[in-house]
Amino acid sequence: MKISLPRRTATAAVIALAGLLATTAPAASAVPGAPTAPGTSARALAAPDIPVTNVKAHLTQLQSIATANGGNRAHGRPGYKASVDHLKAKLDAAGFITTVQQFSYLGTTGYNLIADWPGGDPNRVLMAGAHLDSVTAGAGINDNGSGSAGILETALAVAREGFKPAKHLRFAWWGAEELGLIGSRDYVNSLPSTERSKISGYLNFDMIGATNGGYFVYDDDPAIESALKGYLTGIGVATEPDTEGDGRSDHASFKNVGIPVGGLFTGAGRLKTAAQVQKWGGTAGRAFDPCYHRACDTLANIGDTTLDRSSDAIAHAIWTLSN
Length: 323
Ligand code: DTR
Ligand code: CA
Ligand code: ZN
Ligand code: ZN
Fold this sequence. Notes:
binds zinc ion; 10 helices; metal ion binding; metalloexopeptidase activity; nine-stranded mixed beta sheet; Aminopeptidase; disordered N terminus; metal-binding; globular; secreted; binds D-tryptophan; protease
């Protein structure tokens, strides 16, 4: 199903989708390399490693989209819609049910991209989201190509593995976050309260590949926090609660209506302290992301290690929390 609807009909699209959610995920046996041994349930398997080379390939494509569209992927600019179209095609090809939700902000059309993985309990929906828009100053590769690519590759891993989670999985890419969390707020407001109450948790990923990064886990829902923290501490990486972010990204739209939220962040414009360098390496007195909201937020502004660990943490959290 391909939907591109004006704001007023977005609710109808959500209701129409609900009927599709009970359908079965593509059979694991149809996926090359998927487990087929009798008694082996895909549900019991651990999350796969997310290949950072795949995540970086998505970032290369987002960079090309920005370069071809005046250097950015900002709300209302052609690079934003091109980013949506690009991701949608990948998700459609992998078997997701995608919806483009249009909204209007200050006279300009914005878009959210929603991708549902068929199957799972429609009354228990686990969501992961990232904003796909950049600021006008640059390509927005760390902010927030990184979160967008991290959840995209996790979604594609769900498809590759033929994952059959107990909960229903939904991935989302938000428009106009940089103008005040506009797209995510529009999505939450457009959901009938019955649909809203089915969302058991929302995980947000905004800036997960800082070059001088740290590992900040949102200090919110304890189960989501411990899934993300558990992965990182398990690979020997210390975390800190996020103090730069409360209310500053799309999780706030969900938290505001009582949905449990969490997420991971590798830092923005704040300076790394000497104590944080002890923990994570990097440079003290320098911003976690020195190119935050600047023209230099390009493909060169990505820390491969932060991006890799963060992407693996996303997959771990999705696999764990959906079962
Ligand atoms: N919302 C981000 C910047 C940001 C600042 N603090 C946090 C904490 C957690 C996630 C994101 C952020 C931006 O898009 O500019
Ligand atoms: Ca990895
Ligand atoms: Zn951001
Ligand atoms: Zn930003």
